[in-house]
């Protein structure tokens, strides 16, 4: 009998490496009637850590019993792990300022069935995209931000994020620097798109910085948000060619497509539980 979608799960884990881990995980699933559909693992010899992602079908046990059994199994191995229903779309909040290309791309991909998301809200410090949000039937929250009102604005943003149960927050060209406190609250579940190939050209106006240096490649970087500006673990990057005839405006126009593609990849991989944190780096099981 073919398992239904709601009986398919994704297990992610990381732990100190040791012999027999793959055998132990597959044995656990076999004993509970699980059928492995997809599996990937990685040994980081530099850190001595083992990473694994397994998609499996199981009709003999429900989510609660699998979770309880796995928690007891994982403890002796010192595992950091997650167990997710594969069919469940990830509850997501999008944040944007006045550059709408990444927002528009994500909304279109989601509407087209290319991203397994449940987009619960759009938050912006400007009103520019309230009509775009309405066209996709997504609630739009306009929360202005000034230096004086930033604490209150972030408190309201967090209230929306938590009330919607957001598992993912995407800064789709949201151009306000988040406070350290907010970064801590969103650790591991907020993705930013930076319009340069990090670690080059951090901070503001990276296309102008790139133009002044006469680079031959421009890029975009999707990374997890941390309190250190543009320093979070990198999920995905890509580049586009540049030459001496390009103006700053040319670079910015060409870079928009790269930014949209890079962010969409990162969001897709995160929503499919393919990204595992490895210190200041990531392991991405594509």
Automatic annotation (TrEMBL):
InterPro entries: ACT-like_dom_sf, ACT_dom, Formyl-FH4-Hydrolase_C, Formyl_transf_N, Formyl_transf_N_sf, PurU, PurU_ACT
Reaction(s) catalysed by this chain's protein: (6R)-10-formyltetrahydrofolate + H2O = (6S)-5,6,7,8-tetrahydrofolate + formate + H(+)
Span of domain Formyl transferase N-terminal: 90-267
SUPFAM superfamilies reported in the protein's UniProt record: ACT-like, Formyltransferase
Residues spanning the signal sequence: none
Pathway connected to this protein: Purine metabolism; IMP biosynthesis via de novo pathway; formate from 10-formyl-5,6,7,8-tetrahydrofolate: step 1/1
Active site, renumbered: 230
Keywords: Hydrolase, One-carbon metabolism, Purine biosynthesis
GO biological process: one example: 'de novo' IMP biosynthetic process
An example Gene Ontology molecular-function term: formyltetrahydrofolate deformylase activity
Domain (ACT) ranges: 9-53
EC number per UniProt: 3.5.1.10
Lineage top rank: taxon: Bacteria
Enzyme class, UniProt record, top EC level: hydrolase
NCBIfam families given in the database record: PRK06027.1 (NF004684), PurU (TIGR00655)
Function: Catalyzes the hydrolysis of 10-formyltetrahydrofolate (formyl-FH4) to formate and tetrahydrofolate (FH4).
Family indicated by similarity: Belongs to the PurU family.
Name of the protein in its database record: Formyltetrahydrofolate deformylase
Annotated source species: Extensimonas vulgaris
Name of encoding gene: purU
